[in-house]
From TrEMBL:
Requisite cofactors: pyridoxal 5'-phosphate
Organism: Paucilactobacillus vaccinostercus DSM 20634
Keyword rRNA-binding: no
Protein family per UniProt: Belongs to the class-I pyridoxal-phosphate-dependent aminotransferase family.
Keyword Transferase: yes
Aminotransferase class I/classII large domain mapped to chain residues: 37-385
GO terms assigned for molecular function: pyridoxal phosphate binding; transaminase activity
Entry protein name: Aminotransferase
Enzyme Commission designation: 2.6.1.-
UniProtKB keywords: Aminotransferase, Pyridoxal phosphate, Transferase
Entry superkingdom: Bacteria
Amino acid sequence: MSDKIQRLVGRMRSGLKDVSPSKIRAFDQEVSEIPGIIKLTLGEPDFDTPEHIKEAAIRSIRANHSHYPQSAGTPGLRQAAANFLDKKYQLHYTADNVVVTVGATEAISVAIGAVVNQGDKVIIPTPIWPMYIPIAQMQGADPVFIDTSADDYVLTPKRLEETIQQYGDQVKAVVLNFPSNPTGITYRREDTKAIAAVLKKYDVFVISDEIYSELTYGDSHVSVAEYLPEQTILINGVSKSHAMTGWRIGIICAPEPIVQQIFKLHQFSVTTATYVAQDAAQEAFENGFDDGQVMRAEYEKRGRFVYEQMKAMGFGVSQPQGAFYLFCELPAWLDEDEDSFCHHLAYDYQVAVAAGTPFGPGGENHIRISYASSMAQLREAMKRLKAYMATKQPE
C-alpha cells in the first residue's frame, strides 16, 4: 500500500475500522472450494421460487417494466404487502405505511439509521443475527446486549425493563427478531404481549425483524406490531416465505409520519428496488398467500430430524419453533473450541456449519446449523458429523 493510500484510508470514517466483514460469509466462501462439501452455513432456502411468481416476473419484463418505479415501491406491491400483513397478522396497514427496500438487510439499515443519533443506545437481545450489530455501530449507535441464553433465548420483560431503566433516555430503540436467527426460537403470544407491555411505557422504537413469520411451527406468528402499532418499525419480505432471497425485496411498515422519515434515507441510499422484482413480490403477496406453508411443513420435518440427531450426539439444543436453524452447544466433554470444531468438520469431514460467537453474547461455544437443505443432504451431514464426533469421544 502506498503512503498516499495509507493516509487516505486513515481519513476514512473512523468507526469502520472497528467493524469486521461477516465471519459467517467469509467462512462459507472459504469452505465452498472443498470438494463434496455439504454447507449448512447460510439461511438459503433450497426451494425454488414458485412458478406463478416467476411467470409474473416474465410478464413484467414483457410489459417493459424496465424503468424507474416509485422510490417507495410500486403502489401495487405496497398495497399487496399491507393486505397480506392484515390478513395474516391483523396489522392494519395501508400502502402509505409501507416502503419497499432492497431486501430486509436494507430495511434494517435504514430503520436503524433513521432513528439513531451519535451515542444513542440500541438494545439487542443475543444471540442474534450479527448484521444488526455493525449496522448500529456504523450509524454511530452503541449496542447494548442482553444475553438471553439463560432464559431459553427469549427476552424477558424483567431484563428488558431493567436495561431500559439503566440507560434511561439514551435508549433509542430495541431490536427484536423472531422466529430467531440463529436459535430457531420464537415469541409466543404471551411472550409478545408481555414484552409489549414494558415497551409501551417508554418512547422507544421497536425495530422488529419478522422475516421468518411464515415459518413458525405450532401456533401462528404474532407480531409485536399488533400490540405496539405506534412504536413498531416492522421488517418483513418475501425472501424466506416465498424462497426469493435473490430477488432482494424487503418491506418496512410503520406509522406514516415515521415511514416518511425512513423513506428519505432509503431514497438517497438506493433510489428504489428493481421493477421486475417488485412485480414478482406483488404476485407473491397477492396470489401466494399460502406458498410458505408447504415449505414450512418440510422445514419442520427437517428441523425435528436434525434436532433429534444433535441431541443424541450430546449437543445442547432447543427444539426448533420456527425459521430453519438450530443453535447447538458443544458437548462439555469435547476438548475443542468452536472455531477448531468448524474448521476440522469442514476440511476433514466435508460438513460446514457456522461458529456461534459472531451471534453475540451467549453464542460462545455454540454452532449454528441451517437445515434449509434437502433431507438427503441432512442425513448425509449427520452421518459425517457422527463419524467426526466418534473420533472425539473420551476414552
